[in-house]
Predict the 3D structure of the following.
Amino acid sequence: MSGYYEPEIECASRDEIADLQNKRLRATVRRVYDNVAFYRERMDRAGVRPEDIHTVGDLHLLPFVTKQDIRDTYPYGMVACPMSDVVEMHATSGTTGKPVVAVYTQKDIDIWGECCARAIVAAGGSKESRVHVSYGYGLFTGGLGLDHGGHALGAATFPVSSGNTQRQIQIMRDLGSTILCCTPSYAAYLGETVQDMGVQGELKLTAGIFGAEPWSEEMRRDIEAKLGIRAYDIYGLTEIMGPGVAFECAEQTGMHVNEDHFIPEIINPETGEPLPDGELGELVFTCISKEAFPLIRYRTRDLCVLSRRPCSCGRTFVKMAKPMGRTDDMLIIRGVNVFPSQIETVLLSRGFSPNYQIIVDRVNNSDTLDVQVEMNADMFSDTVKQIESHERELIGDLKSMLGIYANVKLVAPKSITRSEGKAKRVIDKRKI
Amino acid sequence: MTIKQISVFVSNMTGGLADVAEDIGKGGVDIRALSIADTTDFGILRLIVDNPDRALETLRADGYVVSVTDVVAAHIDDTPGGLARVLRILADAGIGIEYVYAFVTRQAKNAYVVFRLDDGERGCRILEENGVRLASPDEVYKL
């Protein structure tokens, strides 16, 4: 059983957490109203004043912030502190439009480090750990976020960054990395390479902290088996902070939200109405301790469920389930909602590799869904009949999971490009 | 008596087969016979080679998906009706053929036909009882 980084907060009573949240929420709302024209205008238009917000229960009175709002105020329109207090900035890749720029004061960075340190300790880490960070360093929050966490904890932190898989494994072997931090798809690839090289026995890895993209329980088991570790999920987004907004504990049944800094809500994505705990909806976060870029009721587009069931690890923070997809990752194929994570679950349960590609196209006004899967030794046979029977089983499983027909195409091993960061799983060729 | 056949997964794209063949050549392995089963998406390349172990090792090391299957290589008289006689023996015994391919040798007067049978053990026995000579591994590998 691992310990805690800050037990007095992580295991505080719900009353203590509520008091802290209410106090910080009031102060943050007041501050953004006074300092950020965007919030002042929005709140005035909604007819809500800072003094109307007393407790977390009043959150629903406040307007939402969307990604579009951040783009509209690009780059510094939502900064709530003097620019001279800013010490670091990060940005999203901007593949879907203008990048999201997030800025941080030194206090913001310290809190970020603490949040990630909590995640590392929850994964069994300590000051004695050797934290191997294979997330990309740079504008992406993954690398520096976990780096700040390793430093806060006082652990030896290896800023390896992404890429050069052979060298990653060499560093793990030679320098005795104990905790690996990267995207789950890269962890799976590292695991595959470690197995190919037959060096699993020479590694000292005990745990991995993997986030920045959706992954399934099957993928977790695959990574755990290949690397001989326990694999923990971590959640975050640049808009809110980066990795460490929520983290998994030894129970591995969801991620504890660092509620002393972020208040989560689940809303109906269509109506914006708050939903009770346990219902699936869009995750919304309010930052209550950030100085530079404190977003209020930010709509993440992640679909997930919150649970306040007591956790065996002793932490009292609410838990969020693995997001089951994003409102904007969701594919609508022949009118049916399809999430890449559902396809991944089926593939892994059938023993296929977690490297796959989903190709959606429109032929004669009808959507087509092709799933490319890599052939492996267990599925291969010298007869077409047998391979096709595996293929049919897979198509049957996909049909029952998705409710629509997916064409399976078996391709050669390692022919699907491996990703060293976020995997590109979906190619949507439809021109609508 | 059976011999070892190597099967390789080949994706259906230009150059896919060339890649496999080059890999085998690089490993110093000589191909005795081959056949391909193809579907719209992929092919299964089936090979009889002089050194199955080396072929397996080379292909696996280079990331190919490979399997080994025991197949029967029967001598067939290189005369009209030679193949038919052997097929009739199998049919009469109720033994099904999964697939079959043939090769001729440089020196001998007869051809070999490779069978993958649904009941390999009984198939071998029936063929031998009916006077069909089955090739030994050494005989095929050292051709």
